UniProtKB/TrEMBL annotation:
Cofactor: heme b
Protein name: Heme-thiolate peroxidase
PANTHER family: HEME HALOPEROXIDASE FAMILY PROFILE DOMAIN-CONTAINING PROTEIN, STERIGMATOCYSTIN BIOSYNTHESIS PEROXIDASE STCC-RELATED
Key words, A-Z: Heme, Iron, Metal-binding, Oxidoreductase, Peroxidase, Signal
UniProt-recorded Gene Ontology molecular function terms: metal ion binding; peroxidase activity
Heme haloperoxidase family profile domain: residues covered: 59-300
Amino acid sequence: MKLLAILAFAYATYAFPAASRSKLTETLNERRTLNDLRIRQSDSDPVAVVDGLTQIPDDDHPFMAPGPTDQRGPCPGLNALANHGYLPRNGIVTQADIVSGTAAGFNMGGDLSEFLALIGIAYDGDLITEKFSIGGPDSRTSLLGSLQNILGVEGGLDHHGPFEADASATRDDAFFGDDHTMQPNLYAQMKSIAAQYGGLYNLDAMKDLQLLRYQQSIEMNPTFYFMPVSGPLIVGAKAFISEFFSNGTYGAGGVPNEASISAFFGAELLPNGSFTAVPERFPDNWYRRGTPFGLVEAIGQILDFISSKNLAFGANAGAVNSFVPLDLAAATNVNGLACIIRDAIQGNIPSSVEQPIDLVEQAISSLVGLVDPLFDDFGCPAFNASETQAYNAINQINSGNS
């Protein structure tokens, strides 16, 4: 309900968003051109382009399986980074860890990694220590240590929310229990879709996968929830499979094939043709993408996924096949979607985390101050509604007073 109120307020605010700037339009057109190019190249010459690229992992980052107290969770990329020491191997991370680790391992743009880390801290971590767990709850993230649960639970990325969300590629919805462990049957399903594209996990295959998982959640999960912030992030995770897990520069001939993708997902093929889950790792002879992939590109691809497959924001109303769509007219261009995501984040901090109020006020002020500059390029109007203001806004909308 809290997030629905925020989104309704955002809808009223952005019913007539500013037109996308030429820079963003040009970026999206370039992405579509590269998508066509990569499909043609992958069919004819499935060899990664390695000239000038960085091989990962290097000698300083060998694979080590996680120990019994090391946190691992729903994000295969973060798990792999931790298993190679690009992130702290214990799985307890800061914003600086995420920014440096994702840049080194995947060439993720700094604005995108900073944005994702800030969400992780705000929703799943500790606003004071600025730490969060890439897996489950852990006292090592908290200012109060083992006493933290007295005030509120810091659930880590396993916590059902922005990162761990319904309609994941290889994780079950939270309604079914384990929402953070790779499910071999879902990996096999993803592989079967890639098989329709010559065994390549390209963007078109991932769009088909997103649509299928969306439909499956509507049909099987009575609590299916697909709204900003979690909806766009789970869509973005499908695009990341192609953009970050491919061997080499994807737009210039890189290969998003089984040899690359299976290692990142920790999917080991058994003699009987089924899969089993093993610790995630970088593949052998693997090269990261040649150019950074940042926030503008990520939101552009999320919009492309949503619009090309007609994925409506909304939720099931407590029963399967009871999906109620949320009409968000602003989410028709990159700027509109970006501003909705920003506003949902600002209006919903903090969520599950509670701290002494004076420290929280300072932390929230600092966090919002960090979020805003990341969205400067999208021309979002000033917005920093409190939860109370958002509820007032939704009440006015419901009563026809706005």
